[in-house]
Amino acid sequence: MKETAATAPARSASPAGWENILSEGERIMWQGRPGPGLTLAPVLPGRMAKAAVGLLLFGYLPVMNLSHGWPPFADLSPGRTILPLIFFAVVLTALHQLAGYALTRTLVRRRTWYTLTDRRAYIATDLPILGKRLKSWPITVASRLDYDGGTPGAVWFAEEKKRSGKSRYTMPIGFEQLDDAGHVYRLMRAIQQRQNA
């Protein structure tokens, strides 16, 4: 028997570029991109601690040299110059780590795309050298959603364990720098409520 429009089974055609990615019946609910603004979020405790030490030393150096007049260290003997140089090295290293982290995250966001379906959250990146990557996380009743309420805002929905040298830390995963973060958060809550019904 030949299929007609009335008898043919319903097919869910994936949008262009999503063929063989979405599951059967999976539907795209929202797509967007992060804003280009410079931000440190999510804040990593290790980097913030290093930056705090650098800033404290940066503030301490002028105080330490008030009795020496200007320019700083002008009347220090060679033997007493080593401590200020060490302080300056620590300050520059701390500030470089913080600024480098912020700049790297900003550059990555400019090559990032977000997609929310009725089942999963997708983050796609297209970075130099690393190329194109697509990661996804299921949105379930057990998913812990965290909306920061800012403008632009962020919605965090997962975590990833990472390692830097000998230290380990947890990196939050989510959609960042969104003008419509509240809308995206409500969509995710609706997904959870439907699953719980």
Can you characterise this structure?
This is Aspartate carbamoyltransferase catalytic subunit. The chain crosses the membrane at residues 51-70, 82-103. Keywords: Membrane, Transmembrane, Transmembrane helix. By secondary structure, the chain is α+β, with helices and mostly antiparallel strands. The protein has 2 domains: 45-105; 113-196. Helix content is 32%, strand content 27%. Strands 1-2-3-4 form a 4-stranded antiparallel β-sheet, covered by helices on one side. β6 and β7 form a beta hairpin. α1 (45-64) runs antiparallel to α2. The longest helix is centred in the middle third of the chain and has 28 residues, at 82-109. The protein starts with 27 loop residues before the first strand and ends with a helix.
In spatial order, strands of the major sheet run 1-2-3-4
What is the helix fraction of residues, given as a range? 25-40%
SS-based structural class?
alpha+beta
Tally of discrete structural domains: 2
> What quaternary form is this?
single chain
Any low-confidence stretches, pLDDT <50, length ≥5? 1-12
Q: Please give the alpha-carbon distance between the first and last residues.
A: 39 Å
Q: How confident overall, as mean pLDDT?
A: 76
Q: In this structure, how is the largest beta sheet organized? A: 4 strands, antiparallel
Tell me the total number of β-strands. Answer: 7
Question: Which of globular, elongated, flat, extended, rod-shaped describes the shape?
Answer: elongated
Strand content: 25-35%
Using only C-alpha atoms, the radius of gyration works out to 25 Å
Order of helices and strands: EHHEEEEEEH
Alpha plus pi helix count: 3
Organism: Marimonas arenosa
Protein name: Aspartate carbamoyltransferase catalytic subunit
Keywords: Membrane, Transmembrane, Transmembrane helix
